[in-house]
């Protein structure tokens, strides 16, 4: 990975998989391991799932390694990896619970670690492209990030959104491929002036070398995205052997939480949806032409 900012979430998930493999190799269920370690099963589940809330104390790590009969090589690797989590702090940690909901923390970390992101949006401008004024309108809705009645938290949510957007212009940014429903362009958030600014921002973002943007027009008729709703597919960097550091993850979001799909058959379904939609979306130039046309409508509204 190119930047230390991308490492914490993936590092924790790799630690979790290693501990899970050692536990299973030792012939222990999660319940048995939790009992022998005198810990709650939920704690072990958080460790094995790579939760960022876990704090790895060296004595606790050593206790797990002994119980799992880890080899000296595995023990050395896991002690080094868990020590690294104590040294790394990602920007979003300062916003969790105040500006970013806790359930969104995992996605922000995965997004920062991804090599490529494919995203379909059916209702809203993608968060990575939203202007401050547009995001303000979104965050005021029930179910928007933060307490929409608390001005301080509302401001923190806007700050966090701006921090996320730096992802696209950092060193070695991910490839972002977007497909957006035409309705998103035409649904007014706040005022025509806000939408005019927002569409100009989309046009500017689409000029980045790592961003592609295509519109699914009304003329496409019924398409697979009508069944799926919004989703994001994240692919991750590969190691020196060509193996992905993380399996492909499909992310689905709701107002109170999110679903992460990483089983091969789930990935296959969403890849098929993406491919079907790509076949009915406008190409990049046609998409830009449509965005510019709608932008002019807002300009003179």
From TrEMBL:
* CDD domains, per the entry: HTH_XRE
Q: Gene3D superfamilies under this entry?
A: lambda repressor-like DNA-binding domains
Q: Which SMART domains match?
A: HTH_XRE
Q: Where is the HTH cro/C1-type domain?
A: 19-75
Q: Which SUPFAM superfamilies match?
A: lambda repressor-like DNA-binding domains
User: One MF term in GO for this entry?
Assistant: DNA binding
What PROSITE patterns does the annotation carry?
Answer: HTH_CROC1 (PS50943)
**Pfam families per the record?**
DUF5753 (PF19054), HTH_31 (PF13560)
Can you say what this protein is called?
Helix-turn-helix domain-containing protein
Q: Which organism is it from?
A: Micromonospora inyonensis
